[in-house]
Design brief:
By secondary structure, the chain is mostly beta strands. The protein has two helices and 38 strands.
């Protein structure tokens, strides 16, 4: 973390012992009222969200924890928080400062997207973290709190969408916000957005109020059914149910998330041939398939893979916790997975009938039908994402630069890829059916490609194609 001068720390320690009781007294009366007449307690300020101050990011999570991060500083400063009216009480829990237990109370005021935290008394330890000796700091609110995305139009304040994960189908997109909230936009003919309507949206709309979403997936091959997993491992689905993809015993579409069974899942992968592969939290690998009959239903097949150390599953491929790579052409449950080679240093992949696989050392390799073909170049990479039909594919190098190849770019292989822009702070990518997304290290979400149904999250404005990465916003 940041190094403090001896003088600042001496002042801080003195403050801890002389000021902590006074700080605690700011909110020790549970009956304190907002109007002074003892009748109506104030409504608590909605603090959950992401705030920035210079190169710092301050995230207030829904589980009552917070963290402060700074560009180029790997170790965050952490703590817990609580709110009473427009006052927030912060408790330091950073392990690097375990010898000090500090509780601080700030008054919160808000003006548009600017939020000011004011402190009474001597200089705040939190503000020292922000390189400030002032008793108030004004932050820019990036997302969260009262921002609910409105109704998908471009009215109101534009706020940068900060994303943890994004997944796009044929014509709609779903994303998880940095605070664990769920958002969607694009085509909604079958309720695949999950917002309770069947109306298309061209900018992000929030789905419900939960903040415990962990992973999202879309079955883009047949139905554009949307799937998601919560932090407790529960599996949810909504949208098209023509082939029983919601696994609720009907073929009726649903426009809000509904839970599937009571099993606990780690991940689900939606393939392009009508199958779903999943890993339970106990490490076992499972497949879903259509059950033939008058009406098609997905069913959870009998598990033939008895191992309990599966870590990553994708189309035809999987990686175990020991780093070994496995292949099963056609995702048929009757065919056992077979190991690809003998190495156990594989880290990640994206695949169809073949795959691009990244090793722990960042080297990139290509496989074909379960056989390692060759290493591609001498560069090192952190992630790769393959779009539909090899039209557009994306990858991020270890230096944070973004690269693309495919028929859309006139480049058929990654070793002939072109760089997208000059930024070197890209963190994750998703190459979809017709549009692509990328998330930067600051959490901002960027999109480009086909936007006919608003699937890029950017109002079309009579332009159904976005040529270059364009930032995605939510609107208050």
């Amino acid at each position: 973390m940041l190094k403090k001068s001896f003088f600042l720390w001496m002042m801080l320690i003195a403050f801890v012992f002389t000021g902590s009781m006074a700080l605690l007294s700011c909110d020790d009366d549970p009956n304190k009222e907002g109007n002074g007449n003892g009748e109506n307690p104030p409504e608590d300020y909605d603090i959950v969200g992401v705030y920035t101050y210079g190169t710092y990011t301050w995230t207030f999570n829904a589980n009552k924890t917070y963290e402060i991060t700074r560009e180029s500083v790997p170790e965050p400063y952490t703590g817990t928080w609580s709110v009473s009216g427009n006052e927030i009480i912060l408790t330091d829990t950073s392990p690097q400062y375990a010898a000090l237990t500090i509780i601080e109370t700030f008054t919160i005021t808000e003006n548009d997207n600017q939020v000011t935290f004011s402190y009474s008394g001597q200089v705040s330890k939190i503000f020292i973290i922000f390189d400030s000796m002032e008793n108030s700091l004004t932050f820019t609110k990036q997302s969260g709190g009262n921002n609910n995305g409105g109704n998908g139009n471009n009215g109101g304040n534009a706020i940068p969408f900060l994303a943890k994960q994004v997944y796009t189908g044929s014509y709609h997109t779903v994303a998880i916000g940095i605070d664990g909230s769920l958002w969607a936009w694009g085509r909604n003919s079958d309720g695949q957005l999950g917002d309770g309507t069947f109306i298309d949206k061209n900018t992000p709309v929030r789905i419900g109020s939960d903040t415990d979403w962990a992973l999202i997936f879309i079955d883009a091959g047949y139905t554009d059914t949307t799937y998601a997993i919560k932090t407790n491992g529960s599996l949810w689905a909504w949208g098209n149910n023509l082939y029983g993809g919601l696994m609720n015993g009907t073929n009726i579409n649903k426009n809000t998330p509904s839970q599937i069974g009571s099993e606990s899942w780690k991940s689900i992968n939606c393939t392009y041939n009508g199958t779903l592969d999943g890993i339970k939290t106990n490490g076992t690998l499972w497949q879903f398939w259509w059950k033939d009959g008058g009406i098609y239903y997905y069913q959870l097949l009998t598990n033939t893979y008895t191992d309990t150390n599966w870590a990553i599953v994708g189309y035809n491929f999987a990686i175990k916790a020991d780093g070994s790579l496995w292949f099963n052409f056609g995702s048929s449950n009757s065919k056992p997975m077979s190991q690809v080679g003998t190495e156990n240093n594989w880290a990640s992949f994206d695949s169809s009938s073949s795959a691009y696989v990244i090793k722990n050392d960042g080297s990139l390799w290509k496989t074909g039908y379960g056989t390692i073909v060759n290493r591609i170049g001498s560069e090192t990479w952190v992630s790769v994402s393959l779009g539909a039909n090899n039209e557009h594919n994306l990858a991020i190098k270890t230096n944070g630069s973004l690269w693309a190849w495919g028929t859309e770019y006139g480049k058929n292989e990654i070793d002939d890829a072109i760089q997208i822009g000059s930024a070197t702070n890209w963190k994750s990518i998703f190459a979809g059916f017709g549009c692509s997304f990328a998330i930067k290290t600051d959490g901002t979400l960027w999109a480009w490609g086909g936007n006919g149904f608003g699937q890029c999250g950017i109002s079309p404005d009579d332009d159904n194609y976005i040529d270059v990465p364009t930032q995605v916003f939510i609107y208050e």
